[in-house]
UniProtKB/TrEMBL annotation:
HTH lysR-type domain: residues covered: 7-64
InterPro entries the UniProt entry points to: LysR-type_TF_proteobact-type, LysR_HTH_N, LysR_subst-bd, WH-like_DNA-bd_sf, WH_DNA-bd_sf
Top-level taxon: Bacteria
Name listed for the protein in its UniProt record: Transcriptional regulator, LysR family
Gene3D superfamilies linked: Periplasmic binding protein-like II, Winged helix-like DNA-binding domain superfamily/Winged helix DNA-binding domain
UniProt keywords, alphabetically: DNA-binding, Transcription, Transcription regulation
UniProt GO MF annotations: DNA-binding transcription factor activity; sequence-specific DNA binding
UniProt key word DNA-binding: yes
SUPFAM superfamilies listed in its UniProt record: Periplasmic binding protein-like II, Winged helix' DNA-binding domain
Length: 300
Protein backbone atom coordinates (compact mmCIF):
# COMPACT_ATOMS: atom_id res chain seq x y z
CA UNK A 1 0.00 0.00 0.00
CA UNK A 2 1.40 3.41 -0.97
CA UNK A 3 1.85 6.11 1.64
CA UNK A 4 -0.77 8.79 2.20
CA UNK A 5 -0.20 11.94 0.11
CA UNK A 6 -1.71 14.43 2.51
CA UNK A 7 -1.17 18.20 2.73
CA UNK A 8 0.52 19.56 5.87
CA UNK A 9 -1.67 19.26 8.97
CA UNK A 10 -1.21 22.97 9.72
CA UNK A 11 -2.76 23.85 6.33
CA UNK A 12 -5.71 21.53 6.95
CA UNK A 13 -6.28 23.07 10.38
CA UNK A 14 -6.17 26.58 8.91
CA UNK A 15 -8.68 25.64 6.21
CA UNK A 16 -11.08 23.91 8.65
CA UNK A 17 -11.09 26.91 11.00
CA UNK A 18 -11.52 29.44 8.18
CA UNK A 19 -14.34 27.45 6.55
CA UNK A 20 -16.12 26.93 9.87
CA UNK A 21 -15.80 30.58 10.98
CA UNK A 22 -16.13 32.09 7.48
CA UNK A 23 -13.23 34.41 8.31
CA UNK A 24 -9.42 34.33 8.02
CA UNK A 25 -9.18 36.81 10.90
CA UNK A 26 -11.28 34.77 13.31
CA UNK A 27 -9.48 31.58 12.25
CA UNK A 28 -6.17 33.31 13.02
CA UNK A 29 -7.43 34.29 16.50
CA UNK A 30 -8.51 30.72 17.23
CA UNK A 31 -5.19 29.23 16.12
CA UNK A 32 -3.08 32.03 17.67
CA UNK A 33 -1.43 33.06 14.39
CA UNK A 34 -1.74 36.06 12.10
CA UNK A 35 -4.37 36.40 9.32
CA UNK A 36 -1.49 36.52 6.85
CA UNK A 37 -0.29 33.12 8.09
CA UNK A 38 -3.79 31.70 7.59
CA UNK A 39 -3.90 33.11 4.05
CA UNK A 40 -0.49 31.59 3.22
CA UNK A 41 -1.48 28.18 4.66
CA UNK A 42 -4.68 28.08 2.61
CA UNK A 43 -2.95 29.27 -0.56
CA UNK A 44 -0.42 26.48 -0.11
CA UNK A 45 -3.26 23.99 0.36
CA UNK A 46 -4.94 25.21 -2.83
CA UNK A 47 -1.67 24.75 -4.73
CA UNK A 48 -1.24 21.26 -3.24
CA UNK A 49 -4.64 20.01 -4.38
CA UNK A 50 -4.97 22.21 -7.45
CA UNK A 51 -8.38 23.62 -6.51
CA UNK A 52 -9.48 27.08 -5.36
CA UNK A 53 -11.09 26.85 -1.92
CA UNK A 54 -12.14 30.44 -1.18
CA UNK A 55 -13.35 33.42 -3.17
CA UNK A 56 -11.51 36.35 -1.61
CA UNK A 57 -13.76 39.38 -1.47
CA UNK A 58 -13.15 42.84 0.02
CA UNK A 59 -14.30 42.16 3.59
CA UNK A 60 -14.93 38.46 3.58
CA UNK A 61 -14.02 35.07 2.13
CA UNK A 62 -16.57 32.72 0.60
CA UNK A 63 -15.97 28.94 0.45
CA UNK A 64 -16.16 27.45 -3.01
CA UNK A 65 -18.10 24.30 -3.88
CA UNK A 66 -14.86 22.30 -3.49
CA UNK A 67 -14.39 23.78 0.00
CA UNK A 68 -17.95 22.83 0.94
CA UNK A 69 -17.16 19.24 -0.02
CA UNK A 70 -13.86 19.16 1.89
CA UNK A 71 -14.99 20.99 5.05
CA UNK A 72 -17.33 18.38 6.65
CA UNK A 73 -14.72 15.63 6.18
CA UNK A 74 -12.06 17.67 7.97
CA UNK A 75 -14.50 18.93 10.61
CA UNK A 76 -15.54 15.39 11.52
CA UNK A 77 -11.93 14.23 11.48
CA UNK A 78 -10.74 16.96 13.86
CA UNK A 79 -13.75 16.32 16.12
CA UNK A 80 -12.75 12.65 16.24
CA UNK A 81 -9.14 13.60 17.06
CA UNK A 82 -10.31 15.86 19.89
CA UNK A 83 -12.62 13.20 21.32
CA UNK A 84 -9.87 10.56 21.26
CA UNK A 85 -7.37 12.86 22.99
CA UNK A 86 -9.92 13.87 25.62
CA UNK A 87 -10.72 10.21 26.31
CA UNK A 88 -7.04 9.52 26.93
CA UNK A 89 -6.81 12.49 29.29
CA UNK A 90 -9.81 11.20 31.23
CA UNK A 91 -8.21 7.81 31.89
CA UNK A 92 -6.73 7.50 35.41
CA UNK A 93 -2.96 7.68 35.32
CA UNK A 94 -1.16 4.88 37.17
CA UNK A 95 1.72 5.80 39.41
CA UNK A 96 4.74 3.59 39.97
CA UNK A 97 6.48 3.86 43.35
CA UNK A 98 9.84 2.40 44.36
CA UNK A 99 10.20 1.23 47.95
CA UNK A 100 13.68 0.23 49.11
CA UNK A 101 14.20 -2.15 52.03
CA UNK A 102 16.73 -4.63 53.35
CA UNK A 103 16.88 -8.08 51.80
CA UNK A 104 15.37 -9.81 54.82
CA UNK A 105 12.61 -7.24 55.39
CA UNK A 106 11.64 -7.40 51.72
CA UNK A 107 11.54 -11.21 51.66
CA UNK A 108 9.87 -11.84 55.03
CA UNK A 109 7.65 -8.79 55.61
CA UNK A 110 6.89 -6.99 52.36
CA UNK A 111 6.52 -9.77 49.80
CA UNK A 112 3.95 -11.77 51.82
CA UNK A 113 1.80 -8.61 52.01
CA UNK A 114 1.73 -7.73 48.32
CA UNK A 115 -1.80 -9.07 47.81
CA UNK A 116 -2.98 -6.68 50.53
CA UNK A 117 -1.19 -3.78 48.82
CA UNK A 118 -2.83 -4.49 45.46
CA UNK A 119 -6.22 -4.58 47.15
CA UNK A 120 -5.65 -1.39 49.13
CA UNK A 121 -3.93 0.58 46.32
CA UNK A 122 -5.22 -0.80 42.99
CA UNK A 123 -4.10 2.30 41.06
CA UNK A 124 -0.47 2.13 42.25
CA UNK A 125 2.34 -0.06 40.94
CA UNK A 126 4.96 -0.87 43.58
CA UNK A 127 8.57 -1.72 42.75
CA UNK A 128 10.48 -3.36 45.58
CA UNK A 129 14.19 -2.50 45.67
CA UNK A 130 15.86 -5.04 47.96
CA UNK A 131 19.33 -4.06 49.17
CA UNK A 132 21.20 -3.83 52.45
CA UNK A 133 22.94 -0.70 51.14
CA UNK A 134 21.04 2.53 51.94
CA UNK A 135 19.59 4.03 48.78
CA UNK A 136 20.03 7.75 48.03
CA UNK A 137 16.52 9.13 48.45
CA UNK A 138 17.57 12.68 47.61
CA UNK A 139 18.75 11.48 44.19
CA UNK A 140 15.34 9.98 43.51
CA UNK A 141 16.60 6.38 43.34
CA UNK A 142 13.59 5.39 45.46
CA UNK A 143 10.46 7.17 46.66
CA UNK A 144 10.73 5.78 50.19
CA UNK A 145 12.81 3.30 52.15
CA UNK A 146 12.57 1.08 55.20
CA UNK A 147 15.71 1.11 57.31
CA UNK A 148 16.74 -0.70 60.46
CA UNK A 149 18.66 1.31 63.01
CA UNK A 150 18.67 3.83 65.79
CA UNK A 151 17.39 6.67 63.58
CA UNK A 152 16.50 9.31 62.69
CA UNK A 153 18.72 10.25 59.75
CA UNK A 154 19.79 13.86 59.02
CA UNK A 155 17.96 15.42 56.09
CA UNK A 156 15.30 12.69 55.96
CA UNK A 157 11.87 12.38 57.50
CA UNK A 158 11.51 9.11 59.42
CA UNK A 159 8.90 7.41 61.54
CA UNK A 160 9.20 4.08 63.39
CA UNK A 161 7.21 1.43 61.57
CA UNK A 162 7.97 -2.01 63.03
CA UNK A 163 9.44 -2.50 66.50
CA UNK A 164 11.83 -5.44 66.78
CA UNK A 165 12.46 -7.91 69.58
CA UNK A 166 14.93 -10.76 69.13
CA UNK A 167 14.70 -14.25 70.62
CA UNK A 168 15.93 -17.79 69.91
CA UNK A 169 13.73 -19.55 67.33
CA UNK A 170 14.02 -22.96 65.72
CA UNK A 171 12.11 -25.73 64.01
CA UNK A 172 9.66 -27.49 66.33
CA UNK A 173 11.27 -30.77 65.25
CA UNK A 174 14.39 -29.96 67.29
CA UNK A 175 12.37 -30.39 70.46
CA UNK A 176 13.98 -27.56 72.44
CA UNK A 177 12.40 -26.88 75.82
CA UNK A 178 15.05 -25.17 77.99
CA UNK A 179 17.93 -22.76 77.28
CA UNK A 180 20.34 -25.52 78.33
CA UNK A 181 19.17 -27.50 75.27
CA UNK A 182 21.22 -25.12 73.11
CA UNK A 183 24.24 -27.30 73.89
CA UNK A 184 22.78 -30.02 71.62
CA UNK A 185 22.32 -27.87 68.50
CA UNK A 186 24.22 -25.53 66.21
CA UNK A 187 23.78 -21.80 66.59
CA UNK A 188 22.85 -19.85 63.47
CA UNK A 189 24.39 -16.38 63.20
CA UNK A 190 23.31 -13.43 61.05
CA UNK A 191 26.33 -11.27 60.30
CA UNK A 192 25.54 -7.59 60.78
CA UNK A 193 27.19 -5.22 58.37
CA UNK A 194 27.78 -2.50 60.99
CA UNK A 195 27.51 -4.13 64.44
CA UNK A 196 27.29 -1.97 67.57
CA UNK A 197 27.13 -2.68 71.29
CA UNK A 198 23.34 -2.91 70.93
CA UNK A 199 23.36 -5.38 68.03
CA UNK A 200 21.33 -8.49 68.94
CA UNK A 201 23.99 -11.22 68.79
CA UNK A 202 24.29 -14.59 70.52
CA UNK A 203 27.04 -13.16 72.76
CA UNK A 204 24.75 -10.36 73.91
CA UNK A 205 21.94 -12.86 74.43
CA UNK A 206 24.26 -15.03 76.55
CA UNK A 207 25.13 -12.02 78.74
CA UNK A 208 21.44 -11.32 79.26
CA UNK A 209 20.67 -14.98 79.97
CA UNK A 210 23.58 -15.23 82.42
CA UNK A 211 22.28 -12.15 84.23
CA UNK A 212 18.98 -14.02 84.57
CA UNK A 213 20.85 -16.86 86.31
CA UNK A 214 21.20 -19.31 83.41
CA UNK A 215 24.39 -21.37 83.15
CA UNK A 216 25.54 -22.71 79.78
CA UNK A 217 28.80 -24.29 80.89
CA UNK A 218 31.49 -24.25 78.19
CA UNK A 219 29.07 -23.65 75.27
CA UNK A 220 30.86 -21.60 72.59
CA UNK A 221 28.41 -18.91 71.51
CA UNK A 222 30.71 -17.89 68.63
CA UNK A 223 30.55 -21.29 66.95
CA UNK A 224 27.96 -22.39 64.40
CA UNK A 225 26.76 -21.44 60.93
CA UNK A 226 27.02 -17.85 59.69
CA UNK A 227 24.92 -16.04 57.11
CA UNK A 228 25.39 -12.64 55.50
CA UNK A 229 21.66 -12.54 54.68
CA UNK A 230 19.24 -12.79 57.61
CA UNK A 231 16.57 -14.38 55.42
CA UNK A 232 18.97 -17.29 54.77
CA UNK A 233 19.39 -17.76 58.51
CA UNK A 234 15.59 -17.89 58.79
CA UNK A 235 15.38 -20.57 56.11
CA UNK A 236 18.14 -22.57 57.80
CA UNK A 237 16.22 -22.44 61.08
CA UNK A 238 13.02 -23.60 59.37
CA UNK A 239 14.97 -26.48 57.80
CA UNK A 240 16.11 -27.58 61.26
CA UNK A 241 19.81 -26.78 60.86
CA UNK A 242 20.03 -25.07 64.23
CA UNK A 243 18.77 -22.27 66.46
CA UNK A 244 18.75 -18.65 65.25
CA UNK A 245 18.45 -15.38 67.14
CA UNK A 246 15.92 -13.56 64.99
CA UNK A 247 13.51 -10.64 64.87
CA UNK A 248 10.14 -11.90 66.04
CA UNK A 249 8.50 -9.37 63.69
CA UNK A 250 10.18 -10.89 60.62
CA UNK A 251 9.31 -14.48 61.55
CA UNK A 252 5.80 -13.74 62.84
CA UNK A 253 4.18 -15.56 59.91
CA UNK A 254 6.47 -18.58 60.35
CA UNK A 255 5.68 -18.69 64.08
CA UNK A 256 1.95 -18.46 63.39
CA UNK A 257 2.17 -21.26 60.81
CA UNK A 258 4.14 -23.50 63.15
CA UNK A 259 7.21 -23.62 60.89
CA UNK A 260 9.19 -22.03 63.75
CA UNK A 261 8.79 -21.90 67.51
CA UNK A 262 10.19 -19.60 70.16
CA UNK A 263 11.03 -22.18 72.85
CA UNK A 264 12.34 -19.84 75.55
CA UNK A 265 13.75 -16.41 76.38
CA UNK A 266 15.19 -14.05 77.27
CA UNK A 267 14.12 -11.57 74.60
CA UNK A 268 16.37 -8.72 73.46
CA UNK A 269 15.04 -5.33 72.34
CA UNK A 270 16.28 -4.20 68.93
CA UNK A 271 16.02 -1.03 66.91
CA UNK A 272 12.86 -0.32 64.90
CA UNK A 273 12.46 -0.60 61.18
CA UNK A 274 11.80 3.01 60.10
CA UNK A 275 9.83 4.34 57.16
CA UNK A 276 12.10 6.96 55.62
CA UNK A 277 11.62 9.45 52.79
CA UNK A 278 13.10 12.69 51.56
CA UNK A 279 11.20 15.73 52.86
CA UNK A 280 9.20 17.66 50.32
CA UNK A 281 5.75 18.30 48.94
CA UNK A 282 3.18 15.73 50.00
CA UNK A 283 2.02 13.40 47.26
CA UNK A 284 -1.18 11.39 47.26
CA UNK A 285 0.57 8.19 46.09
CA UNK A 286 3.18 8.37 48.86
CA UNK A 287 0.47 9.10 51.40
CA UNK A 288 -1.40 5.98 50.25
CA UNK A 289 1.75 3.85 50.53
CA UNK A 290 2.49 5.24 53.98
CA UNK A 291 -1.07 4.58 55.18
CA UNK A 292 -0.91 1.00 53.93
CA UNK A 293 2.44 0.36 55.65
CA UNK A 294 1.12 1.78 58.91
CA UNK A 295 -1.98 -0.43 58.72
CA UNK A 296 0.12 -3.51 58.07
CA UNK A 297 2.44 -2.68 60.97
CA UNK A 298 -0.58 -2.35 63.26
CA UNK A 299 -1.89 -5.73 62.11
CA UNK A 300 1.35 -7.35 63.16
Amino acid sequence: MSGRRLPPLSALRAFEAAARLRSFKRAAQELSVTPTAISHQIRGLEEHIGVRLFERQTRRVVPTAAAERLFPVLRDGFDAFAAAVEALRAQPQRRALTLSATLSFTAKWLVPRMASFRQACPDLDLRLHASDDPVDLHAGLADAAIRYGRGPWPGLSAEPLVHNRFAPVCSPHLGLRRPQDLQRHALLHSEWRHPTADTPTWQRWRERASADGLDFGDLDFDAGLRFTDESHAIQAAIAGHGVALLSLALVADDLAAGALVQPFGPVLDGYPHWLVQAPGAERADLAALRAWLRAQADVG
